[in-house]
Amino acid sequence: MGPTARTVADNIRRLREARGMSLRALSAELKKVGRNLSADALNKIENGRTLPPEAEAPKQIRRADVDDLMALAAVFKVNPSALLFPHTYEGTVELTGIGPVDAKTAWKWARGFRPLHVPEGDDGTAYVDFLRHAHPLGYRDFGRSEAGRRAFREDHGGRGFVQRRRDGTYFTHDQDGNVLDLEFDESGNLVERHDKGDE
């Protein structure tokens, strides 16, 4: 088994014990959310956990599939990353297909805050590329780098970041730097845009 499969097994056991659930109780809760995993199947998944070096490996091990993971996350009331990533924010963690990674970086990557690797001297392009492919439109926060501003405009039809003046009116800049006044309805939907020239 790879490091992520072991981590999943470790986290299932950790969360089950933290919730005070037996294998049978967890099986019953999973059935309520439409995922039939017997206590025996759950035990086989937990058998894949990290063991002390002197311990003998169990003969019967089962991997959790992605549907198992989503159902387990729902039952444990955690995000799926709480099952997939080592439960630590210190030191180095081992990730399948990646190898050793700083735990803080791994968790920021898991939460969609940053790419796993950022090239030295990056102008923000690595973040933009990551966010564009990791987050749906409407959930992306590209930041204030020039690369982020370009990406935001591309995603929003040439409109830049919306800014608020002291008088309570809103404006943005188009791709040429021109100021555009904005008007919104009561629901926050853009209703009009007026070209104003530079501010």
Task: Walk me through the structure.
By secondary structure, the protein is of the alpha+beta class. The chain is 39% helix and 13% strand. The protein is built from eight helices and six strands; from the N terminus they run αααααββαααββββ. The strands form two sheets. It has a four-stranded antiparallel β-sheet with strand order 3-4-5-6, with no helix packed on it. A two-stranded antiparallel sheet has the order 1-2. A hairpin with a 5-residue loop joins β4 (170-173) and β5 (179-184). α2 (23-32) crosses α3 (39-46). The longest helix is centred in the first third of the chain and has 16 residues, at 3-18.
Give the number of helices. 8
Strand content: 5-15%
Q: What percentage of residues falls in helices of 4 or more residues?
A: 25-40%
Please give the alpha-carbon distance between the first and last residues: 60 Å
Rg from Cα: 24 Å
Major sheet: 4 strands, antiparallel
In order across it, which strands form the biggest sheet? 3-4-5-6
Topology order in helix (H) and strand (E) letters: HHHHHEEHHHEEEE
Question: Taking all residues together, what is the mean pLDDT?
Answer: 87
Give the low-confidence spans. Answer: none
General shape: elongated
How many β strands by DSSP? 6
Structural class: alpha+beta
